[in-house]
Specification:
The protein is of the alpha/beta class and 202 residues long. It has 2 domains: 126 residues, 3-Layer(aba) Sandwich (Rossmann fold), CATH 3.40.50; 68 residues, no CATH class. 38% of the residues lie in helices and 24% in strands. The protein is built from 7 helices and 8 strands. The strands form 2 sheets. A 4-stranded antiparallel sheet has the order 2-1-4-5, with helices on one face. A 4-stranded parallel sheet has the order 3-8-7-6. It is globular and about 50 Å long.
Length: 202
Amino acid sequence: MIEVQNVSKSFGKLHVLKDISAQFHKGVVNQIIGKSGSGKSVLAKCMVGLHRPDTGKVLYEGHSFHEMNAQEKREIRKEIGMLFQGSALFDSLTVLQNVMFPLQMFADSSKQEMLDRAHDCLRRVNIEDKDHLFPAELSGGMQKRVGIARAIAMNPKYLFVDEPNSGLDPQTSILIDDLIKELTEEFGTTTVVIIHDMNSVM
């Protein structure tokens, strides 16, 4: 579980978050809902350590993230998977290389074990046959699937998803929603989705 306690964050005179508290539970899709500019992404960035709250705490399993030392924070970050709004794939890497990237950064595994894990993640999102392609050769929906495969490569305990349906057609949006829900329930992750599309929310 992730718990946010009385978090506030300002940028100069702009007060973006004020005294926000919430709990994000394991095995369900937790949602941060709000209109554009309401502070959804800032809250998520405070939760993963990209921003430091001015006041308040973010607790991972009861431990304050911003009070941890560098090594403790690194251990938490190894357990976090992220799907960015624009997928944020590396254009110069193939689909397979994109999914292997976090494994090469953090995993203590052999090359073959990393390859097996990457192929397994691509299989889970039903895009294994595209592993040799580059992001520019994929549709928006396929890029999202690759982003999800990369986000789950380290088998994360915590999964953050930023506007998963941005730029997608309604049918593909439903498929991505269903995939996120299915993976959350199967792996028991604490999934946090930042969203403003009420159809997806429902």
